[in-house]
UniProtKB/TrEMBL annotation:
Topological category with respect to the lipid bilayer: Multi-pass membrane protein
Species whose genome carries this gene: Rhabdornis inornatus
Function: Receptor for tyrosine, L-DOPA and dopamine. After binding to L-DOPA, stimulates Ca(2+) influx into the cytoplasm, increases secretion of the neurotrophic factor SERPINF1 and relocalizes beta arrestin at the plasma membrane; this ligand-dependent signaling occurs through a G(q)-mediated pathway in melanocytic cells. Its activity is mediated by G proteins which activate the phosphoinositide signaling pathway. Also plays a role as an intracellular G protein-coupled receptor involved in melanosome biogenesis, organization and transport.
Keyword list, A-Z: Cell membrane, G-protein coupled receptor, Glycoprotein, Lysosome, Membrane, Receptor, Transducer, Transmembrane, Transmembrane helix
Cellular compartment(s): Apical cell membrane; Lysosome membrane; Melanosome membrane
Protein name per the record: G-protein coupled receptor 143
Assembly with partners or alone: Interacts with heterotrimeric G(i) proteins. Interacts with ARRB1 and ARRB2. Interacts with MLANA.
Family according to the record: Belongs to the G-protein coupled receptor OA family.
Annotated segments matching region Disordered: 371-392
Length: 392
């Protein structure tokens, strides 16, 4: 699981709350993390592999939304691999891990492994949070027709730059001036927790607002495409709204336990003695949410693929062949020689004025297709209702 407690455990003089959860059934906890991360990893890869009889899940080159979804999954996969490696070492080499508790030990490798593995997990999941925020921003920009090829470069700079900067800053403040003196006071720990949970809270607060504004903009686009708001348009708008809802639902399910757990542990840290009997229920709740975190945090990768694409099935197609995507036929003639052929025969005597009026509809179709990517029924319904499919 991904928690700033992983970094604070690397301090030999760690606080009592961290000691409580990290020493609670460590073998069971590591086994839970390995099992959950392994299942999520296998199912996520299965979801992303091409399937027989299905079109590959990718967007036109002018869209960055598909790339962002893939990067979110990659961050989850790499973060899950970090959990598996870290928990495996903890289970396989208990004597090696025990040296972390030595205050003035001469062997630096246990502490190096502890810090390095914790930073790897924290960095990858933090980057995933930033990519999820970029997805909400990009979805809004797509319907506003402000996104393009250059935006993905800005997303990369923002995501990796902020993730690395916050992670390094939080670790540096936590371990300053050295591992042996970290966690001596809250002035070391609080900045670390802030830099860790800042992107998570940003997604919880900002993404619902951006998704709501995107859904409103989509409704306006669908109404203005043909001047009417038919049942197909209403259903397509509902499916896009449901997709955003499922993304946020997965995020809340996977990370709400972290917020609850940190709140309980911080409360325990403020007490003179966390082992007092009146605090028994709080200790129990903290330990329960700690185990829940080990289950839900790694499962985010697989659950996100369900929210993005739905269940794609078991029949994997490992043969590479180019297949036409239904909504790629909507690309306008301005795409140039890379455009895919249209599924209908164009009439050669189309008037220029009708072409101009159709361009906006094409751009609208492409914007909606980007948001409904991965939903086959939505793509087919959008293609059938588009003026290109109908042959004008």
């Amino acid at each position: 699981m991904a928690s700033p407690r992983l970094e604070t455990y690397c301090c030999p003089n760690r606080d009592a709350a961290t000691q409580l959860v990290m020493n609670f059934q460590p073998k069971v906890f590591c086994g839970v993390c390995i099992g959950s991360a392994s299942i999520s990893l296998l199912l996520t890869v299965l979801q992303l592999l091409p399937k027989k009889g299905q079109s590959p899940r990718k967007m036109p080159k002018a869209s960055s939304s598909s790339t962002i979804l893939l990067l979110i999954s990659i961050c989850d996969i790499l973060g899950g691999l970090g959990m598996i490696f870290r928990s495996s070492v903890w289970l396989g080499f208990p004597g090696f891990i025990a040296n972390i508790s030595v205050v003035n030990g001469t062997d630096v490798w246990p502490s190096t492994f502890c810090v390095g593995s914790a930073m790897w997990i924290q960095l990858l999941y933090s980057a995933g949070f930033w990519w999820l925020f970029c997805y909400a921003v990009d979805s809004y920009l797509v319907v506003r027709r402000s996104a393009g090829l250059s935006t993905i470069v800005l997303y990369h700079m923002m995501t990796w730059g902020l993730a690395v900067m916050l992670c390094v800053e939080g670790i540096a403040l936590l371990y300053y001036p050295s591992l042996s003196s970290c966690e001596n006071g809250l002035e070391h720990a609080i900045p670390h927790y802030i830099t860790t949970y800042a992107p998570l809270l940003l997604v919880l607060v900002a993404n619902p607002i951006l998704f709501r504004r995107t859904v409103s903009a989509v409704a306006s686009l669908l109404k203005g495409r043909q001047g009417i708001y038919t049942e197909n348009e209403r259903r397509l708008g509902t499916e896009i709204q449901m997709r955003f809802f499922k993304i946020m639902l997965v995020f809340v399910i996977c990370w709400s336990s972290n917020i609850i757990n940190e709140t309980l542990l911080f409360y325990l840290e403020m007490q003179p003695d966390i082992n007092e009997m009146p605090l028994k229920n709080i200790r129990s709740a903290a330990l329960i949410t700690w185990i829940i975190m080990g289950v839900l945090n790694p499962m985010q990768g697989f659950l996100f693929t369900l929210a993005f694409y739905g269940w794609t099935g078991w029949r994997v197609d490992l043969k590479w062949r180019k297949r036409e995507i239904p909504w790629e036929s909507m690309s306008s003639s301005t795409v140039g020689e890379n455009a895919y052929p249209s599924p209908v025969n164009y009439q050669s005597n189309i008037h220029d004025s009708k072409k101009i009026s159709t361009t906006d509809s094409q751009q609208t179709d492409e914007a909606i297709s980007m948001l409904s990517e991965g939903n086959t029924s939505s793509d087919e319904r959008l293609t059938r209702s588009s003026p290109i499919y109908q042959g004008w």
